[in-house]
Amino acid sequence: MCSILFRETPEAGPVLTAEDPPCYRDLYLDQVVDAAMAGKKEYDLRPFFGTLLRDPDDVLYRQEVFRDLEAPFLFTSVKSFEGKMRSMRQRRAFAEKLDYRYEKKRWLLEAIDAYCAGASGLARDLGRAETHSRGFSAFRDHLDTYVQSEGFRIMQADARKLREDLAGIRVTLLIDGPRVKVRRYNGENDHVSEVERTFAKFRHDAQKSYLVEFQTWGNLNHVDAMVLECVARLFPEIFSRLDDFCDRNSGFTDPTIVTFDREVQFYVSYLELLSLLRREGLPFCYPRVSPTGREISSRQGFDLALARKMVIENAPVVPNDFFLRGDDRVIVVTGPNQGGKTTFARTFGQLHILAALGCPVPGEEAQLLLVDRVHAHFGKEEQIAELRGKLEDDLVRIHDILGQATSRSIVIMNEIFTSTTIQDALFLSRSIVEKALERDALVVLVTFLNELATMNRHTVSMVAAVDAHNPLVRTFKVVRGPADGLAYALTLAARHRLSYQDITERVRT
Amino acid sequence: MNVFLMYKDRDFDVQAPLPWNAKELGQDLELQTLLGAMSGDDKLVLEVCRRALLISETDVQAIVYRQRVLDDCLRHPQVIRELYGLGHEAIERRRKCSYGIFGRYPSAILSGAIELLQVFSDLLRRLRGIAERNGATFTSEGFTSLFATLKRELSDEYLALVAAQISELRLRSGALVSERLGDGNKAVDQVLRRPKKRSGLLTRLREGPQPSFSFRIADRDEGGARALGEMRDRGINPVANALAQSADHIVSFFAMLRVELAFYIGCLNLHEKFSGKGLPVCFPDPVEADKRTHVFTGLYDACLALTLEGGVVGNNGQADGKDLFIITGANQGGKSTFLRSIGLAQLMTQCGMYVAAERFRANICHGVFTHYRREEDASMKSGKFDEELSRMSVIVDHISRSSLVLFNESFSATNEREGSEIARQIVAALLDRGIKVLFVTHMYELAHGFHDHGAAGAIFLRAERQSDGTRTFKLTEGEPLPTSFGRDLYERIFEVAQEAR
Predict the structure, then answer these.
(1) Which residues does chain B have within 8 Å of residue A216's beta carbon, measured at their own beta carbons?
(2) Judged by CB atoms within 8 Å, which residues 81-110 of A form the interface with B?
(3) Is residue A267 located within the same domain as residue A402?
(4) How many angstroms separate the Cα of B196 from the Cα of each of A177, A189, B193, B213?
(5) Count of the separate structural domains present in chain A
(6) What ipTM goes with this model?
(7) Is A343 found in the same domain as A421?
(8) A400 with A440, same domain?
(9) Are residues A293 and A304 in the same domain?
(10) In-domain check, residue A333
(11) What is the tens place of the pLDDT at every residue in B450-500?
């Protein structure tokens, strides 16, 4: 059986994680996954979004499928297939619950009709679409064989004819007290046009509607069923054909098609998430990934979760660049509060996770490590109380992280040790970075301790930049540069006329 | 069928957005007083008159059209009030009819609509009667055309047709409903049908027997009866909707009649108040917007006149070709009153009303704007000036050629030199853009500056003071004097205090 998500699937199916990895919450990837899955609960996509790929070729396999689906024609086809399959499931489930025979059979007919339309429509579109992925190529071969089989073709033709004949039926009911007489319709006129003509002279502009909304779905009541039995007797040939059709086609779906329907939603849901952002001009790219590489770079990357929020609020999204080369292992991010430091750290983590899912990532270009895990430890600035307990918890947690880290891991630490003395914090941070370097993991360290930025030859210093003309304006840009919080403080002071010169002028001797 | 008493070719829009500065205009010109006198307790009259006053017409023909209709109204107030009452009755009947509120069952909607249409048939007949009795004595284009329409459209023949249709829809011999099979073979597209007249023997022989199958709901089957009722209702649904909408169309005609008459009712009410006080009013003479003229005799503040027991002082003016009025002079000397009388007369002119004057002629303005000094926030001096400037800035956002701006002690929340300079630049820029400006000010530098270097387009008015210090509340033309008369006010108040002691 072929899979659109996995290059090779073991007999028992792929090994998937049931829950999101722990770092998703800190990286806001839980929001991204939730947004992607919104309205798609029935597909149970969470395991797909939670399971990182190990082999670069697996990543490539998904990137190929993504690229194929970027073509609007194929994407629209798959969406249309999705809609048909969903109606099929709804109708089939509905039919199973019903009692009146011709109601039940009509719903089964509709379910089969939707299924046939979905399968044959997708087969036709795949024949026209230009695809290059191994995934779509294998699935197309299967689908073609299936829709050309005799069984499928007869089922589809019978369904079509039956639906036409049923739609052509028209009857009149003479309702007089408790009595109902059912006949074939014989061209009787309606009242509405006459009424409208009479009062047209008063017609002015759009008016309130007095049409009562009747439930148009739902099952028949026993009076409906009695009418329907009369109708079946007025048109006996059509209804006996319906009986026969349902007997012959009870188990009508193909398992490979059903699996495709679920798995392709991984791609569809992610691309739908991106389309909102792309419309605002935000770029996405297919990263090159390597399980060993230490040459890492991203151009114009951004935090996907934040970008979604900003686009909805119509606020600008600030992208950032980063790169690591040679001995670079540790990015130390410093700068003013609310300056984009944490967002930068999230972006770094997000890009790597998304790449390991085989997804396109935010930015114009990216070369990334194919990670086994991203370990995130985000301190909470508010929790200054409980110094001892908090510090202890932090250290236990970090110890666990470092115990699991490998040369394919990324460790992100955000404002940790805020609850201890600066000397302690410096010492602890340095020690932890040393440990991480021993394991050859990549580290992103967000901190207010400028000293950490020049710890050793593996550290890269990046700072959250401020506007040179107005220090109150946050640019949310994080750039390579020396850690120097003072530049910000001095300009802010000047603005309040508290610089050295200001104060000497204002204070009179 | 159209009413068209407010415009020659369209309805009055009660939903039309008010100008952005409606609140300021209302406050600065004290429109509440005027509107209160026009409307009494009638909220509709209040709402319509407020809109008519605030949404100024800028077309001379449109203004004259309303003046003529109003003239008919002033000559036949009883007929106008009767027509207004008829509109009111129709609305009340509709309001009391339950189907608008409990409209969940088409059969209930259908019978409700039938009852309502019978009532409306009677009201329409009475409406035609009024048109027939008064057609000859009304002369305005608006009324002539309305009465002609009523006579033509509401003939006896037409009303008989309505009665016949209503009768058929009572469905005395059962409901014939057609349907198709929809999802799950559930019946859809139910439509009430008119049964065919019984066909002749030959047709029946040719067509052969029509098979039919029948059933009957058991007597105790309440669920079945309900289901059958719903089937019938689904069939009735479209025609019940059509009939109820038809009733609504008639209601909306009466509603429009009432809305458009509401304005004239307001004018009638106000006119009675002025007549009662013996105050003169006149139809103004509106002039195209690209001209510059303000000529008036006995112009007084309508709002002040309504609240005062005694008479009011009217002002005369002759300002052809002028686009700047600088008004200076004594405190409590009638400057603000004059400014308001100009603003009110402008709004009243541009909604087609009479004005509070013996004679009034003015060019039409594209928007009236007021910029008054606000008394609130007196503690924050710097903030206040900032607030004045920001309000001015908003006005500038909205203003255009041929607008009218009324300044009252503006930009005085700073020192006079700064205030004058800022005001001078603003006013000069406005004049340059073809905007008419009236400026009440204490700032001598401002007033004097325009006097000495002013263009020919400026006119200077001064609040008068007799040699003994008493005020006449009359403005006369004259150059600004270097001081105001605050001292008078001060002395009078303090003398009163001393006497009391």
Answers:
(1) 182-183, 186, 188
(2) 94, 98, 102-103, 106-107, 110
(3) no
(4) 20, 8, 9, 19
(5) 2
(6) 0.75
(7) yes
(8) yes
(9) yes
(10) yes
(11) 888 766 789 999 887 776 666 677 888 888 776 544 444 444 444 544 555
